[in-house]
Amino acid sequence: MEKSVKFLWVYNNIVNPIINNVLSGAVKLTSDVVSKSLGLPSSGGAKFYREYIPSIQENTEKINLLEVQESALLEVLDDLLNIIVKLNYKTITIFLDKIDEQPEISSRIDEEVRILLPLLKNNQLILNKKFSFVFILWSKVKKELNSEGVRFDKIKPIDVNWAHYDLIDIMKKRISYFSSGNSTLESVFQDKNDITLLANLANKSPRDFLHLMSSIYDQQSEINPNSGIFTSQAVAKGIIHFLKNYDFYSIYPAQRGTKQDIRGIISKLNKINKTEFKVKDIMTILKLGHQASSSHIKIMKNYGVVKEKEDTPGMEKEYIVSDPKVAFIIKNNISFD
In the chain, which residues have pLDDT < 50? Predict the structure, then answer.
C-alpha cells in the first residue's frame, strides 16, 4: 500500500504535469502554425496549459471477490493470460503450495478439501489450455478429494513418496561421500537394526532422517567423542532428543493451547498409553464425555495422526496411531519438556 501511495504522488505531481505540459505545448504550437497559415490571429500569451490526461485518483473502494460473478472473474483471468502471452512467455504455470500451512486450514484435511474442491471440479479452469495448475498436496488430501469426485484421470497425479529403502539409500550415499568411500552406513552403527528404526521414524522424510543422524551424532559426541561408531546408547538418547524437540507445529500448525494444539493431542495420547484405542478409552482416562472424546478423535484423524482400523466391522470403532513418531513417543512414554 505504501509503495502504491508513493507511485501515485510521483505520477500526479511530477510525471503527469510533464506529460500535460508537453501535450499543451504541442497543441499550442500546432494551433499557432495553423492560425498563421490561415491568416488568423495567434492565441498570444493566453494560458496554454491544459490537463489533457487527468491525474490518477486513489481508489479506496474495496471489492468483495465473493460477491463478484464467476464469469467476470474468468474474464479478468483470461485478459491477464492474454497479456502474459503478448509478453512472449511460452508457458504459464500456477503453483499452489503450502496450502495446509494457512492458519484457517491448520493442516486439517477436511478444510483443505473444502477449499480445493470447487477449483479442482471446475473443468473450465483445470482443462484451460492457456495455463497449467500445479498443486503440491499432502498425499492424504488426494484420497479425500478422490472420494469427493475429483477426476484424477483428467488431472495427472504424480506421487512423490520416499520408501524406507529410498531413505536408507540416500544415507548410504552421504556416508560414502563424506567419508571418501571409507565407511558404510552399516559400519557406523553398533546395532544394524537401528538403521531400520531410524528410517521408520523419519516417516518418508529425508530431512527428518538427516536430523535424526545429527541428533545421534551430538549425543555420541557427549558420551564418547573418540568413538568410531554410533552406540545403542547414543542412538536411544539421540532419538529421544530429536522427538522432544521436533517441530510438530511445522507439520500440524495450530494455535497453541487449543484442542487443535498438536503437542496437546500427543500428550493426551500419551496419557491413554495405547497405540490402539477406542472412544471409551479416552472417556475413561481423560474423563471426557462421548461427544468431547469423539471431537478429539476427529481432530486426530484430520491431522492424520490416527486412523480408523478397517478390520473391525460391526464392532465398536477402534483407532490406531498412524504417525510413527507419535507411536514411538507413546510406547516409550516420552514427555515434552
Answer: 1-3
C-alpha distances out from residue 17 to 5, 6, 14, 25, Å = 18, 16, 6, 12
Q: Using a CB cutoff of 8 Å and minimum separation of 24, what contacts does 46-51 make?
A: 48/24, 49/20, 49/21, 49/24, 50/20, 50/23, 50/24, 51/20
Task: Spell 185-198 as b/e; 16+ CB within 10 A means b.
Answer: beebbeeeebbebb
Neighbours of 85 (CB within 10 A): 14
pLDDT of residue 1: 44
Report the C-alpha gap between 31 and 14 in whole angstroms.
26
**Residues paired with 96 in a beta bridge:** 135
Total residues belonging to the chain: 337
CA–CA gap between residue 194 and residue 189 (Å, rounded):
7
Q: How high is the pLDDT of residue 323?
A: 92
- Kindly report the number of other CB atoms within 10 A of residue 161's CB atom: 7
- CATH class of segment(s) 252-331: mainly alpha
CB-CB neighbours of 302 under 10 Å: 21
Amino acid at position 286, single letter: L
Local structure of residue 230 (DSSP, 8 states): B
Instruction: Provide the pLDDT for residue 301.
Output: 87
pLDDT tens digits, 146-193? 777 777 777 777 777 788 889 999 999 999 999 998 999 999 999 999
Instruction: Give the pTM.
Output: 0.61
